[in-house]
Amino acid sequence: MAEDKATPKTAAKKAPKPAVKKVVKKAAKPGAEAAVKKTAAKPEVKPTAKPATGKVSVTLIRSKHGRLASHKACVAGLGLRRMHQTVEVIDTPENRGMINKVRYLLNVKEA
Questions:
Q1: Of 30, 31, 50, 90, which has the most beta carbons under 10 Å away?
Q2: CA-to-CA distance for 109 and 59, rounded, in angstroms?
């Protein structure tokens, strides 16, 4: 005989709230518009260095088994999978770095 009467607090909790997204705009700083305009007006910078067209012939002459994980990764990055396999890679600083790191495993010839 005691009936549950909904109080205003419980009625508000039970009713589903509508999904409303609040959009808050932040006030722009006085110099912010000028900074945006300056960055947008800059022309694109073209690379001045010429792309490397030279190639290097690399041969795996020692096994990669039992080596450091980073050395194995360099050998794989050069595209070498098995001993006495030869690949030609583009002569770039990235490839030169990998070659220098594992030079004790490789035979390198300028192509």
A1: 90
A2: 9
